[in-house]
Amino acid sequence: MAKTFTTEHTIQYYEADVKQHVTLPMLINISLEASTQQAASLHIGEEEVHSRGLGWIILESSLDIHEMPRVHDTVTVKTWVEEANSFFSIRHFQVIKDDDVMVEIKMLFALLDMVSRKLTRIPDDFIEVLEPKAVKRVKRLANNDMWAEGDDWDHVTEYAVRYNDIDTNLHVNNSHYYEWTTDALGVDFLANHRPVSMVVRFEHEIGVRDTVVSRYQKDELVTKHQICTGDTVGAQANIVWQKETDVPSFKM
């Protein structure tokens, strides 16, 4: 049975939007911090991983959002690695308040050789301490019919990659992809809608000094996104939205 880990976190004002809901990038960071803490507690944390010339990367993620945590909410983040084979693993996260699961997240992880920048095998001792179910084939979280088609975009926004966007794996931190996809939708849409599910596939690394383009196609309450550098698609996303009925009054 997979080894679980739990930690508590209180949502701070700087982690939230104007509606006092935690933002998607911060939700991802808070969840990943729980996995970082679990790895450290099992002596396979960042220092150990980097000492072997390796780095964890996320290939895909899926989110089911029943309710977004709000400012001052104290939530429990629960995480475990459900299944793994020699190259891939699926990590689960639950964000819980008062025994209610507010958010469920799954992420498909792999290990990157920091020199060759290619995927490499997960060390046996990592698997042993995490105790996931051993499988021959790890099921993908996304399928190809989720993505945008053609070259007709509702909106295109350009962003410059900044020094502080780069993490210890020497590429853009995953949380920025969530920021770029949602920010491109604009203030009016974001103020009047909330995400209920999201699937992301990370295709190619994006580095410092790159310029990225965030573009999307919108079909009522479904938006399909691409994050690109030049002709290369760095990531794709599919978000299902729900219209808000209790939007606060504020000037933007």
From TrEMBL:
Which InterPro entries does its entry note?
A: Acyl-ACP_TE_C, Acyl-ACP_thioesterase_NHD, FATA/B, HotDog_dom_sf
Top-rank taxon? Bacteria
Q: What family is reported? A: Belongs to the acyl-ACP thioesterase family.
The record places domain Acyl-ACP thioesterase N-terminal hotdog at 3-128
Q: Per its UniProt record, what CDD domains does this chain match? A: 4HBT
Locate the Acyl-ACP thioesterase-like C-terminal domain: which residues?
154-243
Keywords in alphabetical order: Fatty acid biosynthesis, Fatty acid metabolism, Hydrolase, Lipid biosynthesis, Lipid metabolism, Transit peptide
Lineage, opening ranks: Bacteria, Bacillati, Bacillota, Bacilli, Lactobacillales
What's this protein's name? Acyl-ACP thioesterase
What molecular function terms (GO) are annotated for this protein? acyl carrier activity; fatty acyl-[ACP] hydrolase activity
Cross-referenced SUPFAM superfamilies, in alphabetical order?
Answer: Thioesterase/thiol ester dehydrase-isomerase
* The organism of origin for this protein: Weissella ceti
